[in-house]
Design a protein that fits this description.
Structural class: mainly alpha
Number of domains: 1
Order of helices and strands: HHHH
Number of strands: 0
Number of helices: 4
Keywords: Membrane, Transmembrane, Transmembrane helix
Shape: elongated
Distance between the termini: 79 Å
Strand content: under 5%
Amino acid sequence: MSEALPKEELLDDQYLAIWQGEQNYLRTRWSVSTFFMSISFAILGLSFQNALLPSQVLAMRIAGLLIYWFSYLLHMQLYKHTVSLRKYLLELEKNQKTQFVLQGRVGRNPSRNPYYTANNLLLWFGLLYTIGIIALFLFKI
């Protein structure tokens, strides 16, 4: 008869696999978000060409703005999946199903300010971006 592995080893392996998958997912989330944001800013930059009609300039800026907000919404949707993975890892740590406490240590970081999260900064920048586009339209720049 083969000897079964202790549950702790299985959960440690599972924990590390989930943690590594979450890190890869995080990298992918930021790559996709920054790709679309870069396109948005490139379109905004192209809208400052002198040879364009005012209607073309407005259309380009609105398209750039829509792409930015698409990127933000996509980022937030992918963030929800990341949160669920992190909650599961924390649950394993809390119930002592693993010897690792990677997520628990990150969450207890006292220097983290909850107002300066990436999600909040992206939201505030998007609002400033929107106000900027409206100002450019109103001042006919």
